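Hypothesis: this fold can be encoded by more than one sequence.
Test: take the structure tokens below, design a sequence, compare later.
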């Protein structure tokens, strides 16, 4: 991992931050791409630096292709060509299908699925030219088993599997691997904001009896991004504590 340049979309979230930390621990240069403005990002970067993690930051709207293009140009100019891309940006906007609005549907699909194209497109040619690349896309257990109130989210995250497998086939001969992971319930701000009684029911349904730690998701990504994982491509790694077995 030494001196590899890693770009993590959704990089300031709990999982994104943990991913950046693990890559830095392994001597890579991590860059978080997210939607917050530069002023807020500077505060976040300062807090990370106090913990010993010097993380780069670039602002991006993953739903906008041209904005992603500008982001990629900034990254290459400031840090160099990206070796490892982690597509971790995502959002939820839950409602039962009968009550779901077109806005709720498109917001989630644009952020969780369209971003796969908008971001990855900006870096694939450089990876092909250099005959090296690692692309890891974050899906979800909801895409594998379905989830009440998440037809938008499950649909978008399911699309990541087809994207991953197809791109893996197209790029394997260039030394590029493309894989996905499917986390279950993770100990994050989003999950911890769920009412305690509901959260307890969720935990009770997980065979290992707890939520995942963000670091456990990051370790899996680090594994798929390593030099030793060059023979793994087009695969999905489920990290759900046994809540869904297939």
């Amino acid at each position: 991992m030494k001196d590899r340049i890693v770009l993590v979309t959704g990089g300031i979230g709990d999982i994104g931050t943990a991913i950046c930390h693990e890559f830095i621990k392994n001597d890579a240069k991590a860059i978080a791409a997210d939607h917050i403005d530069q002023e807020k990002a500077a505060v976040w970067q300062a807090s990370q630096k106090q913990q010993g993690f010097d993380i780069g930051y670039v602002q991006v709207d993953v739903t906008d292709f041209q904005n992603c293009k500008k982001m990629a140009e900034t990254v290459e100019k400031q840090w160099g060509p990206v070796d490892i891309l982690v597509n971790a940006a995502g959002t939820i906007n839950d409602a039962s299908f009968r009550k779901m609005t077109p806005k709720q549907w498109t917001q989630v699909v644009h952020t969780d699925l369209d971003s796969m194209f908008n971001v990855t497109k900006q870096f694939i040619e450089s990876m092909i030219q250099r005959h090296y690349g690692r692309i890891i896309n974050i899906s979800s257990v909801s895409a594998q088993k379905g989830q009440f109130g998440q037809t938008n989210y499950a649909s978008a995250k399911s699309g990541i599997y087809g994207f991953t497998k197809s791109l893996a086939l197209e790029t394997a001969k260039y030394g590029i691997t493309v894989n996905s992971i499917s986390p279950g319930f993770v100990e994050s701000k989003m999950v911890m904001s769920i009412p305690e009684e509901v959260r307890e029911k969720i935990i009770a349904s997980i065979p290992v009896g707890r939520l995942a730690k963000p670091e456990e998701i990051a370790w899996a990504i680090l594994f798929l991004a390593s030099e030793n994982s060059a023979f793994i491509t087009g695969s999905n790694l489920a990290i759900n504590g046994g809540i869904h077995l297939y």
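The chain is about 45% helix and 15% strand. Strands lie at 5-9, 29-34, 56-59, 84-87, 133-138, 176-183, 236-239.
Hypothesis status: open.
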